[in-house]
Amino acid sequence: MFERIELQILNKRIKEPRKFIQVVMGPRQVGKTTMVSQLFKQLSIPGIFESADAIAAGNTIWLQQIWEAARLKMKTQKANEFLLIIDEIQKIPNWSETIKKLWDEDSLNNIPLKLILLGSSRLLLQQGLSESLAGRFETIYMTHWTLEEMFQAFGWDADRFAWFGGYPGSAGLIQDEMRWKKYICDSIIETSISKDILMLTRIDKPALLKNLFELGCVYSGQIVSLTKMQGQLLDAGNTTTLSHYLRLLDTAGLLGGLEKFAHTVIRKRSGSPKFQVHNNALLSAQDIKTLPEIQSNPSGWGRVVESAVGSHLINQSLRNNFSVYYWRDRNDEVDFILEKGQKTIALEIKASFIKNKKGMETFQRRFHPVKTYLIDNNGIPWSEFLKINPVDLF
Questions:
Q1: pLDDT at 335
Q2: Do 76 and 207 sit in the same domain of this protein?
Q3: Are residues 72 and 129 in the same domain?
């Protein structure tokens, strides 16, 4: 069975003396549960795995019950240490306060109970961690699968990855595109929106959120004013509501809105967002065209390629702690700006369609990036770029 790099990191941390809670977060269907099952097979530590996915929303004592069960098993088995893994922890009301109380009790009583928390809502996990568990945890973010991982696991090439994205569970369905599209829409998109957003967050206009997601996927890789988008949305709210909904979609690993690059935070947030799916499957699953049909359209395929590059960047930014922006001033535009610390680099993508060539020159003159890159057949081919860790570009 294929092993992701995060498994090695988690394995090493769990073998260390008990010190931190390990928090694994990431979108649905990227292999978090599979990874912990692989971890169990590699460890000699006894443990139990519990999921909050099917727990009633009002159940406030479930966490205490499974924690006591873990303590009892460790005692009856006379184990020197024990591992408790809890999946979809964000579903439990006041989970962080309860975890803090139980973890501190074990620390005070020298009970070597180790803990791994899994969750698919980055926003809710981060809120709980910052509110109650400061100084008690480490995080591991599991991204959508990369081209290199899909190649190693399933033999996919860059074209197939750009269209079908990086959901490993759907890999066996791509020979029947209609079946594949239905699986992505019903099993991944609908489940992620319903369970990770609508069930856990107050949403006054759920139809608007879903409509925003669908349109955002269509416009992935493009800069769109939220004010102008209101005219295309059913039951459109104000731009503040749309920005909030886009933020929720982003933290669920579905759809983000890249900010415009500027030297000040205020200017960054004042520009129109550049929509960007976290996984290109979310784009193509809602397109009636097939892979051969989209490849026969140079302009359409170019947008697919640019979105694939963007999804690669946005996922790696979460894993490697750098920021991704775009830049535009009137007719001048640069596709992606990466910022890490005090260093800035600019990326221009030319994939089968012509753009204004002055954008990079203007940006370089104004902002002086440390490096600029051209992603095309004369520079770095996009198929090769998807195999690169963007941190290595700095």
A1: 93
A2: no
A3: yes
Q: Are residues 263 and 304 in the same domain?
A: yes
The reported pTM is 0.89
Which residue from 391, 229, 212, 218 is spatially nearest to 315, judged by alpha carbons? 391
Do 131 and 206 lie in one domain? The reply is: no
What is the pLDDT at residue 352? 46
Which tokens hold the place of 20? 């931190």
CA-CA distance, 256 to 91, in Å (whole number)?
23
CA proximity to 392, closest of 336, 340, 351: 340
Number of independent structural domains in the chain: 2
Other beta carbons less than 10 A from residue 379's beta carbon: 16
CA 120 → CA 11, 88, 89, distances in Å? 20, 7, 9
Cα 257 from Cα 222, distance rounded (Å) = 10
Cα separation of 124 and 29, whole Å?
18
Provide the CATH number for the domain around residue 104. 3.40.50.300
In 3D, which of 37, 48, 49, 50 has the Cα closest to residue 11? 37
pLDDT at 265: 60
What pLDDT score does 218 carry? Answer: 92
Give yes or no: residues 137 and 152 share one domain. no
Q: What is the pLDDT of residues 88-132, one digit of tens each?
A: 888 888 899 999 999 999 999 999 999 999 988 777 788 878 878
Q: Do 123 and 105 contact (CB within 8 A), yes or no?
A: no
Q: Which domain holds residue 63?
A: 5-141
Question: Which segments of the chain have a pLDDT < 50?
Answer: 352
Structural domain ending residue among the three candidates 74, 106, 141: 141
